[in-house]
Design goal:
With 337 residues, the protein is an alpha/beta fold. 49% of the residues lie in helices and 14% in strands. The protein folds into 2 domains: 3-127 and 220-326, Malonyl-Coenzyme A Acyl Carrier Protein, domain 2, CATH 3.40.366.10; 136-210, Malonyl-CoA ACP transacylase, ACP-binding (Alpha-Beta Plaits, 2-Layer Sandwich), CATH 3.30.70.
Length: 337
């Protein structure tokens, strides 16, 4: 079997009906949905079938839904003899990665993502209420939010934020280090308005306000972390059975205790995805391909942006997985069930 890394997507990848083809085609994927239903007390198939895009955007819905769809894809891959030598996940995607690495159980994944989503949604609702219900989309009015800085290197963005902070600009944070070309920042409405001008003056090509629910991966989410901590503390975290990479550090997670501590920090700290991509390539001897295990193709695009010669393939639907397992579109893999 070839050496493969699994990459699990985060919020934003969801779409109505995702994962239902896996439920219908794979007995192991069906077990994932059944387990989710037992733990959560709700029919996940109905949730995915009947929810519209706006409903799925809610943090308290998208986190459990994405976890189910991603774990179902991993289960379907396993049925076909495809298992990873390493895994990583973007933000919420770290929870399916924790399962894949043997750190937490499937049941505990749903317990954690349910509470994480609930805590984050409550924090977002409070932020919206205090700001008058307006997501920051321009100017200094509105709630804290997020924006993508395009065209500046991550190191430059982080250095500028540090420089501006020392000069008195508060409430601006590097949230997602997505690629050599893109960094997402979280900030107050006033900080984002000021940052747009400053980043453009520093040479950014674009500064794009994101229509997201809140200022994720920043200290603005401290309330969510505090609410999530008691549930997290109750869950058993084992040492990883395979290489598992952290959003917070961008490095291999060495123990279950470290994984638990990082799971809490991840809510209020940035996603160092480019560091994770580099660490995956450096640490996984003979790595021949990555699979984006879950809905969408965002992580495939970020992997290409990093300039890797190692391919990254889709593995979020039955069709994708059939292509991988039969080599229709993935000649480098040569994996058979």
């Amino acid at each position: 079997m070839k050496t493969i890394a699994f990459l699990f997507p985060g919020q934003g990848a969801q779409y109505p009906g995702m994962g239902l083809d896996l439920f219908e085609a794979s007995p192991e994927a069906k077990k994932i949905f059944d387990t989710a239903g037992t733990v959560l007390g709700r029919d996940m198939v109905s949730l995915l079938r009947d929810s519209d895009a706006e409903t799925l955007k809610r943090t308290d819905v998208s986190q459990i839904a994405l976890s189910a769809a991603s774990l179902a894809a991993a289960a379907c891959l396993k049925e076909r003899g495809i298992t990873p030598a390493a895994c990583a996940g973007f933000s919420l995607g770290e929870y399916p990665a924790l399962v894949c690495a043997g750190v937490i159980s499937v049941k505990d994944c749903f317990r954690l993502t349910e509470e994480r989503g609930r805590a984050m949604q409550a924090a977002v609702d409070r932020i919206m209420e205090e700001s008058g219900g307006a997501v920051c989309s321009g100017g200094e009015s509105g709630a804290p939010g997020m924006a993508a800085v395009i065209g500046l290197a991550p190191q430059q963005v982080e250095a500028l934020i540090a420089e501006w902070k020392s000069g008195g600009l508060s409430g601006l944070y590097a949230a997602n280090i997505n690629s050599p070309k893109q960094v997402v920042v979280s900030g107050s409405a006033a900080a984002l308005a000021e940052a747009e001008t400053r980043f453009m003056e520093a040479g950014a090509r674009r500064f794009i306000r994101l229509q997201v629910a809140g200022p994720f991966h920043s200290p603005f989410m401290k309330e969510a972390a505090e609410a999530f901590a008691p549930t997290l503390e109750q869950i058993q975290f084992n040492d990883p059975a395979i290489n598992l990479f952290s959003n917070v550090t961008g490095k291999i997670i060495q123990s279950g205790a470290e994984a638990k501590a990082l799971a809490l920090r991840q809510i209020t700290e940035g996603v160092r995805w480019t560091d994770e991509e580099a660490a995956i390539q450096q640490s996984c001897t003979g790595l021949e391909a990555c699979l984006e295990v879950g809905p969408g193709n965002v992580l495939q695009g970020l992997w290409r942006d990093a300039g890797s010669e190692i391919p990254c393939y889709a593995a979020g639907t039955v069709s994708d997985i059939e292509n991988v397992s039969t080599n229709t579109n993935t000649p480098a893999l040569e994996i058979k069930s």
